[in-house]
Amino acid sequence: MKGLLLVRISVLSAVAIGLSGCAAAQMELSHKNLDVQTKMSNTIFVPPVSPAKQTVYVQFKNTADQSLDVPALEQELDTSLTAQGYRIAPYNQAHYLLQINVLSIGKMSPSAAQSALGGGFGGALTGAAAGGVISGSYVGAGVGGLVGGIGSVVADSLVKNVTYAMITDVQLGVRSRHAVQQQTNANIQQGTSTMTTQNTSQVGHWMDYRTRIVSTANQVDLSFKKALPALQGQLVHSLAGIL
Q1: Is the pLDDT of residue 199 over 80?
Q2: Which in 48, 52, 68, 184 has the greatest CB count within 10 A?
Q3: What average pLDDT does this structure show over 124-132?
Q4: CA-to-CA distance for 122 and 61, rounded, in angstroms?
Q5: Which strand (E) or helix (H) includes residue 88?
Q6: Separation of alpha carbons 26 and 31, rounded Å
Q7: Where are the domains of the chain?
């Protein structure tokens, strides 16, 4: 009886390994090519201006936990804007103020990336590990858990479907000839039971527009080293397209 059980386990394990291998092969085929996508939470429309006013000041920051070559990215963006007819100008001479802050770069599940996009500018970020592999579920009297575990381990060891995401908040200021009055309302948490409300107002000469850009790169066994250049390229392309 014991020998029969061992034979049964061996046969089912072999089947599980075969099925997991097929699932892994299907995943590898479906995600073999690098897929890079970029989406914006809000579209920004700016009024057309004369060539003399096509001047922009760029402020590029990175507050993510991954290092970026910010000067190189800013230079790449400056080159793209210049190719579109814009001139990079000092702050006090620019008609447009383009402020960029990279908030997060790393592995993220597609659903978490979509959630970050839906949160819009300044929205909270919810991290989630990039998920995983396809594995079958098996049911058997006393051996189902073992077989399913073997299949999962085998599939895990074969391929992983990996997604990296870059989340960036963007604020575009357009200089106005007229005074612009802005009012800010903020609720600030004080401890666990106290909330402080702050109201401020100021007058300036900038009309501000805000959006969030989320770029994702997906591929089987994708490495950060390979994903980063693609994500950066998509970000620069989207930023240049705002103006």
Answers
A1: no
A2: 68
A3: 52
A4: 15
A5: strand 87-88
A6: 9
A7: 35-131+160-242
